[in-house]
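Support reply, case 0932

Customer input (verbatim):
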Amino acid sequence: MKFRLYYLLAPLFFCANLVWAQTTTVAVAANMKDAFSEISLAYKAAGNSEPRIVYGSSGNFSAQIMNGAPFKLFISADEYFPLELYKQGKTIDDGLVYAIGKLAIISKNSTGIRLLDNKSELIKAINKANKIAIAKPELAPYGRAAVEYLKAEGLWNIAKDKLIYADNVGIATMYVVTGAADLGFTALSLARSAEVSKETSYILPSSNLYEPIKQRMVLIKNAPREAVTLYQFMQSPQAKLILQRYGYSTP
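Our regenerated output:
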């Protein structure tokens, strides 16, 4: 009976594995979730097959690709991780910068904390907050930019003991949306999204106080045609318009 069941199910398992093998899997930084969801729809509407998309932190993706994860295209939130993969011989070339991101500070509306891009007002907001959410700076470029900003603005010492860390900027953002944190640092693209803007308010800290967030994408070696096509679509005027609408600058 067991052998009969095996022979009946074996073709199904084979087909499932074949489909998985043929699926182009794309690693996309969490700050890109809303923008890339729209880009993916436009890409599919142009007659292309839909890739399998995984969102997360750029640092985690970089480590996974180094260890053989089956990603074919890496759309990062910074330049460092893609260029490290290139140096290690994991990518076709050094890729290109597809967007420049902006850091935003958000507050939960129900807390009554007022955000103004003024140091004295920010000190008041930080003192009033119980918890401040940021992405882990060692894994996520927007978390790194948040730390740079806090130190450059002279706010680090009053904020550091209130920080709670998330694996990526999307999770850090949701900490504020759900009330687990009163304040948080996120990407402008996420701060503008319908889900987040309904529950929070945001300001843009001075971009002179953190390193430019240049977001680079790279094709992994032996990337299939589908990954190359998506990589090219990310450079199209249509994709750039979507990115700009979500607050990114484009080359």
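We compared this against your earlier run and they match. Two observations from our side: The first strand starts at residue 25 and ends at 29. Strands lie at 25-29, 52-56, 73-75, 96-101, 103-108, 132-135, 163-166, 183-187, 200-203, 213-219. Please reopen the case if you see a mismatch on your end.
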